[in-house]
Amino acid sequence: MSNTKPLLEVKNLKMHFPIEEGILIKRQVGAIRAVDGISFTVNSGETLGIVGESGCGKSTTARAIAQLYTPTDGEVLFEGKDLVTMSSKELLKTRKNIQMIFQDPYASLDSRMTVRTIIAEPLEIYSRTGIMKMTTEEIEQRVEELMERVGLSRFYKNRYPHEFSGGQRQRIGIARALALNPKIILADEPVSALDVSIQSQILNLLSDLQKEMGLTYIFIAHDLAVIEYISTRVAVMYLGKIVEISESKALYKNPLHPYTQALLSAAPIPDPLIERKRQRIILTGDVPSPDVERYGCYFYDRCPKKMDHCKTHIPPMEQIDENHQVACWLHVDKAKWPV
Question: What DSSP line would sit under 178-190, residue for residue?
């Protein structure tokens, strides 16, 4: 592992949404623990994939990193500076380096704005605030350059989003995310709403842009094949927690957490001989509600390998080797178990 400082460090990040009761006087009676104390790092130039079931907190994590949500607790350090405690002015300067590509290309683009206006908007905002200095001609030139870079003709810049297909709309979203020359892009399920043939085009585009521009990605998806294709490292989330994080090849070859093993066993393999022979791990029950405070392993209710100790103690993130960590009592030396 490199000794260079990570581009992004997330430390004990929590995002709890209050549950309130009352009509005239509101009082908090609980909280939805969407993200419940996760930590990880992202190095410059790599792609960290975040995978897990719907509702596990993947998208909330991305929005909390981008400060679209104000985290309940924890730190989000970008180049060593905590975004959570920054002033509004500092955050505006820093956030041009952290941009998002959203999941739904049909909902994330304003239907009343032309493509030119959509891509130029961040450039115009930062020009008005004085953080960047660009003339109208330079902005126009930048819009056309970005359109060409993502595979769209600059002659379409005065068209509206409804005149484009889903794949083309996502290219517009990518161009908008690239406008400010960010260092890191948070891609929140950017291909899940697209046809499979279009998905591959968008994934290849993102890979090419990463090589050309030295971009860093946090790539969120529930599709294991997509994550395997594009990611350098993979973090597996369950019920607001990261249960395993590893280099992509090592994780797919040797998953250690029972939840990761169950996820990978459900993913189809293109070889029919291997597919027929392998055993699937069927998880019983539903994902527990995130509004319940837990004192043991979050996966306990559904784990096929659970032990009594798991019910009352949350497992620590154990370092298995240099690039592989897992939060499971099966991989913690019994001498370290709390009494």
Answer: HTT--SEEEEEST
Cα 200 → chain centroid: 19
Name, in order, each residue with C-beta under 8 angstroms of 249's C-beta and a sequence gap of 6 or more: none
User: Phi first, then psi: what are they for 8, rounded to 5°?
Assistant: -135, 135
Reported as a single tens digit per residue, the pLDDT across 271-309 is 666 666 677 787 887 788 899 888 999 999 999 999 999
Contact 184, 7 (CB under 8 A): yes
With 0-12 CB in 10 A as exposed, 13-18 as middle and 19+ as buried, what is 270? exposed
Q: Say how far apart CA 219 and CA 225 lie, in whole Å.
A: 13
CB–CB of 166/146 below 8 Å?
no
Q: Which amino acid is at 288?
A: P
Query: CB count, 10 Å around CB of 48?
Result: 23
Q: Is 75 helix (H, G, I), strand (E, B) or coil?
A: strand
Query: Distance between CA atoms of 279 and 40, rounded to whole angstroms?
Result: 31
Q: Tokens 């200095």 sit at which residue?
A: 133
Cα dist. 309→200, 274, 298 in Å? 44, 35, 12
Assign 3-state DSSP to the chain and report helix, strand, coil percentages, each to 5. Answer: 35, 25, 40
CB neighbour list of residue 104: distance below 8 Å, 6 or more residues apart: 193
Residues in the chain: 339
* Distance, CA of 153 to chain centre: 29
d(CA 200, CA 187): 15
* Structure confidence by residue, pLDDT tens digits, 168-194: 999 999 999 999 999 999 999 999 888
Supply angle C-alpha 206, 209, 210, rounded to 5: 85
C-alpha–C-alpha distance, residues 320 and 326, integer Å: 7
SS3 at position 233: strand
The two tokens of residue 29 are 């009676």
Q: How far is CA 40 from the centre of its chain?
A: 12
Through-space distance between the first and last CA atoms of the chain, rounded to whole angstroms: 34
